[in-house]
Amino acid sequence: MKKYATGDPEDAFRALMEEVEHKVHHFRKDCWNITLELIADHLGLMNNPWQYSLPKATWKGAVSKPAYHGLEELKKQIPVDLIEAYIVSAKERL
Q: What are the residue boundaries of the structural domains of the chain, listed by start?
């Protein structure tokens, strides 16, 4: 698996979004939304949306369904390292 450089979160997000754009062939706004869903899914926010803001709360509601119907297939095509590069660089900025 290729290692992606971390550093600037904007560059890391742009690289991730461009990879999504190459895979799904949608307009830029749709790629933005799909990229955010991909990150949210990777962080577990689709299953437990409160895990970071209310870590002691147990989510008993329904699991969020992605707006992009091909998310499961896309997850197989996008390198996990690319998603992680964005997350690491965003955390470094905090």
A: 9-93
Give residue-wise pLDDT tens across range 69-88: 999 999 999 999 999 999 99
3-state per-residue secondary structure call for 7-45:
CCHHHHHHHHHHHHHHHHCCCHHHHHHHHHHHHHHHCCC
Region of 29 (left: φ > 0; alpha: ψ -120 to 50; beta: rest) is alpha
Q: What's the predicted TM-score (pTM) here?
A: 0.81
The phi, psi pair for 27, rounded to 5°, reads -65, 160
Burial (0-12, 13-18, 19+ Cβ within 10 Å), 19: buried
* Residue of 19, 17, 16, 21 whose CA lies nearest to 6: 16
